[in-house]
From TrEMBL:
<protein>
    <recommendedName>
        <fullName>F-box domain-containing protein</fullName>
    </recommendedName>
</protein>
Length: 610
């Protein structure tokens, strides 16, 4: 590996242009270290647009999307866009929120690539499953017409770059049977690139549509993944196909013992499965299993009338990351969630180009520990929010890739530095969805105190490259030394997702200020309840919190059917019921956490300097 030390001794006589070309083969941290070796090299790095772009892309985990760009676009414009994107996150430069009144009650919905997509039944049959979906751009007043499918469905996902919508429909006459359909977003008809457009799947267990998360489906490039679980939430199937060729690539079955799971895509080659396995009658064993997507054997084309997953072998994981053991007084709720967003390779657009996240950055995990049925200790629930660095997980793949057996990595080897754990007073599972890249958004309210809107960035490069500065505009440290001590104490105890009410009240009579905190690996979080030994986590992160006071005054209402009564904006609400002037009930799309996340560049004020 090229190092700054080896470079400096051999390239002093080279021209700056050659030095820049050589540095493009280095990592961003190596380039920054090289810049500190002399005044000349500092100037080379500082004044080179391509090196600055290289550093910012890598530090933010971005790639420039493949494909044509506008003829006038240059690297300077792309760099400027990325700096604005970065600073919008660092300093919470959001545009004003909005709300949009839908003309009908939504059955289910998704937030994808800056679009809110609502699904609903036809007006002539309002109590049936949905057959229509409507794509509403979050940063536009456009209100496109709904798209009609030729079938009903209970769940769906979209990939706008491929004009693909994937739907899941449960069979009302057979609780073991469901259908997956591949259609075009623009027409609602069968997708023209899908060799097989409908998959009829029969499981070994009963499923129900009464539970919101019975199905989970995702699309990444030419792959689509489906997870289905049973009515008791103790069995599951995770299935992977090539949606263009119809080839079945991978099956992960739950096996004979009780087990629950959720999955997330790490990059184009690997899938992570959060698995909670039964120990006797209780769910107690937590682990993350990593599976290869590209080395799986292609089983072949599926053209049968029905597809039976249990007829195929369950895949062997490449790696197993173990978690701490539970205390015998606790068990794990069967509602577990793991998310990362956006999916690897999805493109989002700036003013000058398209950008992608080539891999996931942070896994957001939601777990709840419940008192075990045999305990008499009076234990209460423990609600956990866990954030894990994907980069640190992938680090072990090169070490174990060539092994014929599954690699098992104990918690004490990987977990402490790769994760940060938090306690929460609520069991809001939708929190798992409020993650984008390495960032997580949190909204808290303290009654009459202004809203606390916070962005947590779990990318150590971001946290350490941009520490709080006294010269930052609209920046504030905690208003008193004891509040800083209070904050550090809360981080140690796992309560660092919240700003204490006593600190929030300091801003009640003042203008909103940005509170920035950097938590590095020297300040641990220690979870002392629920596990056989205290759980220590040290993943570095940066938090930016804004005391939001004026949303109810500056938000605007608009409707395509009914005028609505304006009411205070509450960012933690996703959907709110409204009643129009004619007394009809409608549903209002509030600008929620993930709407900010997926539309952050468009919502950043364009006139703010980077």
């Amino acid at each position: 590996m090229t190092t700054p030390e080896s470079l400096t001794s051999g390239i002093w006589d080279l021209c700056d242009e050659l030095i820049i070309k050589i540095l493009h083969y280095c990592k961003s941290n190596q380039i920054l270290r090289f810049a500190t070796t002399s005044k000349r090299y500092y100037g080379v790095v500082l004044t080179s647009i391509t090196l600055q772009l290289h550093i910012e892309l890598e530090a933010n985990g971005l790639d420039i999307a493949k494909g044509p760009r506008t003829g006038t676009t240059n690297y300077s414009q792309i760099l400027d866009d990325i700096l604005r994107y970065r600073d919008a996150w660092l300093y919470l430069r959001f545009d004003q929120p909005f709300k949009h009144v839908l003309g009908q009650e939504t059955f289910t919905w998704e937030l994808r690539e800056g679009n809110y997509v609502a699904a609903f039944p036809t007006p002539s049959n309002p109590f049936s499953d949905p057959t229509l979906f409507q794509v509403i751009p979050l940063c536009s007043l456009d209100n496109p017409n709904p798209v009609s499918l030729q079938h009903t469905f209970q769940d769906f996902t979209l990939d706008f770059g491929q004009d693909l919508v994937v739907t899941v429909t449960a069979d009302p006459n057979d609780t073991r049977h469901f259908t997956i359909s591949l259609c075009s977003i623009s027409t609602g008809l069968t997708h023209p690139l899908a060799l097989i457009s409908t998959y009829s799947v029969v499981t070994d267990f009963a499923i129900t549509t009464a539970v919101d998360d019975t199905f989970a489906i995702e699309v990444m490039g030419d792959l689509f993944l489906a997870r289905v679980k049973d009515t008791q939430n103790t069995c599951y199937e995770v299935l992977v196909w090539n949606w263009k060729s119809g080839a079945f690539l991978l099956r992960i079955g739950s096996g004979p013992s009780p087990r629950v799971a959720d999955f997330s895509l790490l990059d184009e080659n690997y899938l992570a499965l959060l698995s909670v396995e039964g120990d006797l009658s209780d769910l107690r064993i937590i682990s993350i299993l990593v599976y290869s997507l590209r080395t799986a054997i292609c089983i072949g084309m599926q053209s049968d009338a029905h597809f039976y997953p249990s007829r195929y072998p369950s895949a062997r994981p490449d790696l197993i990351y173990q978690f701490p053991m539970l205390d015998f007084g606790y068990k794990i709720s069967n509602e577990v969630f793991m998310r990362s967003d956006p999916q690897p390779g999805r493109v989002f657009h700036t003013a000058s180009t398209g950008l992608t996240f080539p891999r996931a950055h942070t896994l957001s995990i939601t777990l709840t520990l419940l008192p075990a049925h045999f305990t008499l200790s009076g234990n209460s629930c423990v609600n956990l929010r866990i954030f894990i660095s994907v980069e640190k997980l992938l680090h072990y793949l090169s070490e174990y890739r060539d092994q014929s057996n599954t690699g098992i990595i104990p918690w004490d080897k990987w977990g402490t530095l790769a994760s940060r754990w938090f306690l929460s007073s609520t069991r809001h599972y939708y929190w798992a969805y409020w993650t984008s890249g390495s960032r997580f958004i949190s909204v808290n309210s303290w009654g009459s105190v202004p809203y606390d809107l916070s962005v947590f960035d779990f990318n150590p490069q971001t946290a350490m490259r941009h520490p709080p500065r006294d010269s930052d505009v609209n920046f504030s440290t905690h208003p008193a030394p004891q509040h800083k001590e209070k904050f550090e104490s809360m981080v140690r105890e796992g309560r660092g997702l919240d700003i204490p009410p006593e600190i929030a009240r300091c801003y009640e009579s003042t203008s909103p200020q940005l509170i920035i905190d950097t938590v590095d690996s020297t300040l641990p979080t220690i979870i002392s309840t629920g596990f056989s030994a205290p759980v220590e986590s040290r993943l570095s992160y940066r938090s930016s919190s804004d005391m939001v006071t004026g949303y109810q005054d500056v938000s605007r209402s608009f409707s395509h059917q009914n005028q609505v009564t304006q009411k205070p904006f509450t960012p933690h609400l996703r959907l709110a019921d409204e009643f129009g002037s004619d007394g009809r009930r409608t549903e209002t799309l509030m600008s929620p956490g993930q709407a900010y996340l997926e539309s952050i560049f468009s919502l950043a004020r364009p006139n703010d300097p980077p």
